[in-house]
Design a protein that fits this description.
By secondary structure, the chain is an alpha+beta fold. It has helices at residues 16-43, 48-56, 75-88, 90-109, 112-124, 238-274, 286-314, 320-345, 356-366, 373-385, and strands at residues 129-132, 148-152, 155-166, 173-179, 188-194, 200-202, 216-227, 231-232, 276-277, 280-281. Helix 1 packs parallel to helix 3 (75-88), helix 3 packs antiparallel against helix 4 (90-109) and helix 6 (238-274) packs antiparallel against helix 9 (356-366). The radius of gyration is 21 Å and the shape is globular.
């Protein structure tokens, strides 16, 4: 094999501060994240200490206001950080995206007193968050959730089960959507629940095809008492809060997908430069060169799409349609590029001795989380042609 290493992504960052931040991220990725990734993923070990380090380094707070301990970075920068982290290890990149999603409700809809009381610790105090929307019988149809919060004096009592919770059982706090009123989207309210709340328990983590180092588990709420001071926004506003968070979260998934695709492309480039058949590197063969060219083009297109949506968000403009487009295109791209990377490595691509097969398994979940790609197509179509007639 060769010592060829694909060059880092040439990024157009808006400030010198952002360039310094990216240098820090790349250093952390190469020193702390990438080296143990394969072994820890195979063993199913969650890198909790690494998330504490990321918090101390200011990488769990990037898109939030400096007033509450955030990094004050635009989404254009934050998403490129996510991409770098996901390229090193998806468990880490996706974990940062989920934590950011879990902070969104309080940061965007909490009272000034709530933000002052909780956000500094959530953003830079070593805490890790999770987001609880889906349920065993309410996935794509999240408005039909049945976990209920019942008022009792100045407290709420939560009963029910949440499903597919990333960081379930290891998070320090959970943003939970629960039903406080009648059926449908208007009867849902958001709550900030401590991870050690009495009556809150996690099931055994799901056994997954990929991302084995990231725990995904059901959460059971058995009479969990939450003070009204931890209700986020108005009663019945929860579903609107959830949709707002998901628009931003979909951009995070898009960036993570591009990171995985970029990592797979880099692996394919390194392998094909060093593998010799018929007396020359296989990267000399036109058929394989065309595959590499297509892979690189798709990665660049995905990056441009999520950055375009991010700039809309940063400008305060509507970006829901563009976020759905970015999530759809980037995750489908990750699936195609990682599959092609396995093909380019031949038999080696199918072994765990090379990371290509792990990238392929990890890419699949990105087409599912935070709204399946079928749901993304529905969202995009509604923006284009209006709501469906019934």
């Amino acid at each position: 094999m060769t010592d060829y290493v694909p060059p880092p992504v040439d990024r157009r960052l808006p400030t010198e501060e952002a360039r310094d931040l990216m240098a820090l991220v790349r250093e952390l990725a190469e020193r702390e994240i990438r080296p143990p990734a394969a072994e820890e993923e195979e063993a199913g070990r969650f890198p909790r200490a690494l998330f504490t380090l990321l918090s101390e380094s200011g990488l769990l707070s990037l898109p939030y206001a400096e007033e509450f301990g955030g990094g004050g970075q635009p989404y254009e920068v934050y998403l490129q950080v996510l991409e770098e982290l996901a390229a090193a290890r998806l468990t880490v990149g996706l974990g940062v995206s989920v934590h950011t999603l879990a902070c969104h409700a309080l940061a965007g809809f909490g009272s000034k007193e709530q933000r002052a009381a909780h956000l500094p610790a959530m953003l830079g105090g070593g805490l890790l968050g999770a987001y609880c929307l889906s349920e065993p019988a309410a996935g794509s149809d999240a408005a039909s959730l049945t976990t209920r919060a019942t008022r009792s004096g100045d407290r709420w009592i939560l009963e029910g089960t949440k499903a597919w919770t990333t960081h379930g059982g290891v998070a320090d706090f959970y943003t939970v959507l629960a039903r406080t009123g009648g059926s449908g989207a208007h009867g849902i309210t958001a709550f900030l629940v401590p991870g050690d709340a009495e009556g809150l328990s996690a099931a055994k983590p799901e056994r997954k095809m990929g991302m084995k180092g990231s725990p995904t588990a059901q959460l059971h709420f058995d009479g969990v008492r939450v003070p009204d001071s931890r209700r986020i926004g108005d009663e019945g506003q929860g579903f609107a809060i959830a949709l707002s968070a998901l628009d931003s979260g979909r951009l995070g998934i898009a960036a993570c997908a591009v990171g995985v695709a970029q990592a797979a492309l880099g692996e394919a480039l390194a392998y094909t430069a060093g593998r010799r058949q018929f007396g020359r590197p296989i990267a000399d063969f036109q058929g394989l060169r065309f595959m590499l060219a297509d892979m690189a083009t798709q990665v660049e297109a995905g990056r441009a799409l999520y950055l375009s949506a991010a700039r809309l968000r940063d400008a305060g403009l509507p970006f829901s349609k563009e976020a759905a487009m970015a999530k759809l295109f980037c995750t489908d791209t990750a699936m195609r590029v990682t599959t092609d990377a396995v093909q380019l490595l031949g038999g080696y691509g199918y072994t765990v001795d090379f990371p290509a097969e792990r990238y392929m398994r990890e890419a699949k979940v990105l087409q599912i989380v935070e709204g399946t790609n079928q749901i993304q197509r529905m969202v995009i179509a509604r923006h284009l042609a209006g709501p469906e007639s019934h």
